Automatic annotation (TrEMBL), chain A:
GO MF term set: allantoinase activity
Top-rank taxon, per record: Bacteria
GO biological process, one term: purine nucleobase catabolic process
Name assigned to this protein: Amidohydrolase family protein
The species this protein was found in: Alkalicaulis satelles
PANTHER family cross-referenced by the UniProt entry: ALLANTOINASE
UniProtKB/TrEMBL annotation, chain B:
Protein known as: Aspartate carbamoyltransferase
One Pfam family it belongs to: OTCace
Superkingdom, natural source: Bacteria
Role noted for this protein: Catalyzes the condensation of carbamoyl phosphate and aspartate to form carbamoyl aspartate and inorganic phosphate, the committed step in the de novo pyrimidine nucleotide biosynthesis pathway.
Assembly notes: Heterododecamer (2C3:3R2) of six catalytic PyrB chains organized as two trimers (C3), and six regulatory PyrI chains organized as three dimers (R2).
EC number(s) recorded for this UniProt protein: 2.1.3.2
GO terms under cellular component: cytosol
Gene transcribed to yield this protein: pyrB
Transmembrane segment boundaries: none
InterPro entries per UniProt: Asp/Orn_carbamoyltranf_P-bd (IPR006132), Asp/Orn_carbamoylTrfase (IPR006130), Asp/Orn_carbamoylTrfase_sf (IPR036901), Asp_carbamoyltransf (IPR002082), Asp_carbamoyltransf_Asp/Orn-bd (IPR006131)
UniProt family annotation: Belongs to the aspartate/ornithine carbamoyltransferase superfamily. ATCase family.
Pathway assigned to this chain's UniProt record: Pyrimidine metabolism; UMP biosynthesis via de novo pathway; (S)-dihydroorotate from bicarbonate: step 2/3
Catalytic function, reaction form: carbamoyl phosphate + L-aspartate = N-carbamoyl-L-aspartate + phosphate + H(+)
GO molecular function: amino acid binding; aspartate carbamoyltransferase activity
Amino acid sequence: MSALLFANARLIDPASRHDAPGDLRVRGGVIAEIAPHIAPEAGERVIDLDGMVLAPALIDARCRVNPASTGAAGIEAAARAAAAGGIGTLILAPDSGAGLSRPEHFAPLEAAALTSPVRLLPAGLAIDSAGEMGEIGLMLRAGAVYVGDGGRPEPDTRLVRRTLSYAGGFDAWTALTCEDAALARNTCAHESDLSMRMGLPARPAAGERLAAERAAVLAELTGARILLDRITTSAALKALDAARARELDMAATVPVTHLMFNELDAGGFDARYRLEPPLRSEADRLALIGALKDGAISAIVSDHRFCTGEAKAHPFPEAEPGSANLEALLPALLTLCAEGRLDLLDALWPVTAGPAELFGLDQGRLAPGAPADLIAFDPDHPVIHTPGARVCAASSAFDNRRLTGKLLLTVVEGAIIHQPES
Amino acid sequence: MSRTGFSYDFPHASLVSIGDLNPLDVRMIFERSAVHFDNNRAGTRAERTLDGATLINLFFENSTRTLASFEIAAKRLGAHVINFSAGSASISKGESLEDTALTLAAMRPDLQVVRHSAAGAAQYFARVTGVSTVNAGDGAHEHPTQALLDAFTLTRRWGEVGGRRILIVGDILHSRVARSNVALLNMLHADVRLCAPATLLPEDADRWGVQVFHDLDEALEGCDAVMALRIQRERMSGGLIPSDREYRALYGLDHARLERAAPGCLVMHPGPMNRGVEIDGALADDRERAVILEQVEAGVAVRMAVLELISSASPNQRYVSDSGDA
């Protein structure tokens, strides 16, 4: 692999909280050198970034591929969209396809990985829809990054306890959907004055809190490491803080949509904002952003889900929940920075070093010897997130939104895998 | 019976739990077991220490091998044996357990052997009836003669089990065999290890005086013997283990895995085996390694020793034994 030199970059490494001008050399698929100035060598390709940001490529810990195309093709499409979104590592959610509960279910992913521009990693389904435990041990051996309930909160506490004990024996993170199953059933909105006026079946924020508290009790009982999958309320954040104060091994992810939008965005019954979990109050959104500054959130996830136009062409409660977010993840976070709500280090940590530390991945940092998974972007360039301008044109809550921040290129293992026409 | 060499009378009229025994009791059991073991092998039927005694096998749980082992042991010693097993008319007529126990006790047996699915059942029978009782398995609590025969098998091989590293792998949570073995092997100063997925280990197993492992390869390091426990099919559902395939891959014993253990590591199984799940068929059949049939053989000898020793200690002993000193 030929050497590559990024010159005149603003190097941002959330892992070391480094933000300074400098050059970075890539050789043999890894970061070879980082210095204020690196003299080009003969035959080396030099990319002058002219002050633009060079940062680790993003790690997305939750992407659900289209269940209608469970084969390699569906995964490849997601991988291309990820590359176009600056994501270098894409972790497929346990509920991808028909559910990844046995190592054989990773086969389409392994097939897609052969040609995928980005790194593809699976997460295993710990409890299938029949209430049976997935082959956690064999899936972890086969490369599962974590295991989880795949977005289906399990009401049977004994089964959850056993699953946590079993997975805990392998020191694996178990992702639990942060919902109370009964409170969330058949609802599509956050319980509030607004949803009540609109007549939408709604779930209270207390459901998240119940789930987070239950998880904390089970973490204490089993000693397992629990990842609260997609918390969206300040109630759950408080429960998480309390659990951590008790030194329990708990972490949480937040979907990028819930950092950008609140229940008012869905106020017009627009099915693009029909999400799972539902959009919450503005106070919840601000609390989540605040938690990013405190480092309480280990990962921001795209929570990408491919929904066709037909799936969304229903009244709000009946529309399929989900949004295509792979290409919105980076500009959404950069928009929060442009609005002054976050700085770049805090915004990028939960999509780089955060998930890398959580799952023990080598990538996600700018350091000599680390894999050369990189992105360059212009943090101030406005973009309109139109379906026509995206690789994945599926329905997105970000459709036609004005965002700030433009990806310039994506590098994985030292190879430029995406470079939009400027 | 002869007590030459002991200045101590076996003090227990019942055997419900390994915790009832002290190391000297165990030594007495093993010394008598050795005599019976050799006699059984030689075909000698000289020890008629239970001649004329009546023993009731009261098996509320299905059993073939344990029932047969106790029956043969008692008959070899000259006792009359009556078997009541699960499903037989006498114990399936809706009678309360206490009534069943008292009814049978009223027939004045000298000994009873009890197996029941409830923890504490043997102790209950012993207390209610006052008859000398051997626990042949009470729920997930204890199966003391199994532990004794396991330790006796190892003692025959090694001289003693003290200082040896012994691993028990499998469903510890539901296993009475494991509980009795941990108690006995600890008493005999063995270095005991347990290995199972976390779902099949009791929460407080690390306080049992053993080392606990979830990884079989780590657990096998330097082991002198490894005992595989039977994995029940019903554990495959309900979230205890994902599948028999995963269990075999992670916790199944085979020749390759044993490379980690000490040279000459012995392989044990209390039976009945699930070949190809907790133990590879070829390993189970490897007579160099597997002492599974030796365990069965030792079982009869150990049960002979236990029956004669507890009957010697029984205040109810009425039959005439050959030694005349009872």
